[in-house]
Amino acid sequence: MSSQGKSNPYDAIASLYDRWNTSVVEDIDFYTDEAVGSGGPALELGVGTGRIAIPIAQAGIAVIGVDSSAPMLERCRERAREAESPSSSIFVSVTCAIRRERESPPRHLALPRLSPSPR
Fold first, then answer.
1. How many domains does the chain have?
2. Cα 38 to Cα 109: distance, rounded to the nearest angstrom
């Protein structure tokens, strides 16, 4: 359920989404390079399970991820914890999928291709 109590179509497929999208990798380097070039932080709307945001965070760029599906954000949190290494932490909060720091506003906005809503 979304924050307004309405069902989000992605809620039902959050646990399957990563397996469904496993072959979609051609845009990750593009968004990561753009975020690194901007100096960050980056904002990703529709962050989902973190397919784009986590590689950006691993490249050392602060990322704020926003999504309307709580189950997708929970999967993103899990993936962020799994991706952490001793040299770089990825911080996740309840309101944002990924946040590394709060000091400055985003300088880069990532809007990966929009996939059709599941039916």
1. 1
2. 10
